[in-house]
Amino acid sequence: MQIYEKIKFFLNVEYNCGFKGSILSVISRSLLYTTIISYIIYNLIVSITYNPDPNNFLEINSSIHEINELSIIWDFDQIIYQYFNFLSSASQLDFGNLVTEEERFSIIMSHLFNTLIFLIAGLFMSLLLSVLLILLSANSVINKSVIFIFCKISYLHLAIILWIANDFLIDSFNFDINSSSTLTIILFSSFFVSLGSGILADYYTLLKEEYDNIMKKDYVIFSKDLGLNHFNFAIKEILFNLLNISISRIPIIFGGLVIIEYFLKDSSMQGISYFIVDQLDGGDNTSIFSSVFICIFIFTPIYFSSQIIQNKIIKK
Fold it and tell me: Are 193 and 203 in contact (CB under 8 A)?
């Protein structure tokens, strides 16, 4: 139990040096968790790779006359040596080349950039729809009809919503989203990723609960009783909670983007999820791990930053 507590303390260490300490805490924890999580994934990929190449355990040995069997337990020293070689190359942004001789890092970043566009647009669309529903909820009739229906539709799986929408658009308007402009693709993806798999209902519910709680606080009620604009007093806390909720929804929306990106695989905007699936089909484990590693490296600081915002700013 003492060992567990020491590990837990080490993984969650914070520096009490004000704003600089918060930044240092985010950086150190992000690097630490990125290393641990990526190492676990590295071992999983190595463990399912048949006859791994002695020079790169992520790839299959090209020699059919040489069988190389690895155990993630008994060959720990070899695996961690290869893993740190990968980290050393990654620190120099050297992830090797694809079979097409294209630089792997630039290709991964172009796909990840598309995913980030989808993600930001999805968050923004979720925010717009949620705020609209909150404003409409003031009307009891609309609250019990339109909003109720929207939330129920939101609980449908995203794949089902896309299937219905795609058939309707093709049959009724002969419209293929994969052949559309970039702006249309972004609007399409943002709307459906914010609507399906319960994302809208979840985002709206959290946002409305926080809004109602803030509006019931003493300082807001007091300012309202004085005839002042109580929204001016509540806006700071509303915005901080909005930011925290939005950041916390990133993993959920990112999960929805896996389906969206596969649906848009023939479009001009292919995301990182489809790239990983495509490389999985092609057996390029290095591209798969490199993509996952970069995603973890980018999104982990965002997660820890949201915790800092919640613990040190919002709760004050």
Answer: no
Alpha-carbon span 109 to 269, nearest angstrom: 13
Predicted TM-score (pTM) of this structure: 0.81
As to burial, measured by CB atoms within 10 angstroms (0-12 exposed, 13-18 middle, 19+ buried), residue 167 is exposed
Burial of 233 (0-12, 13-18, 19+ CB in 10 A): middle
Cβ atoms of 219 and 185 within 8 Å: the answer is no
Rounded Cα distance between 201 and 16, Å, is 38
pLDDT tens, position by position, 272-311 = 988 998 888 778 889 999 999 999 999 888 888 877 776 6
> What CATH architecture is 107-282?
Orthogonal Bundle (1.10)
List all residues 6 or more positions away from 53 whose beta carbon is below 8 Å from its beta carbon: 59, 60, 61, 62, 68
Task: Give the residues across from 97 on adjacent strands.
Answer: 103
Amino acid at 213: N
- Where does CATH 1.10.3720.10 sit in the chain? 107-282
216: tokens are: 């019931």
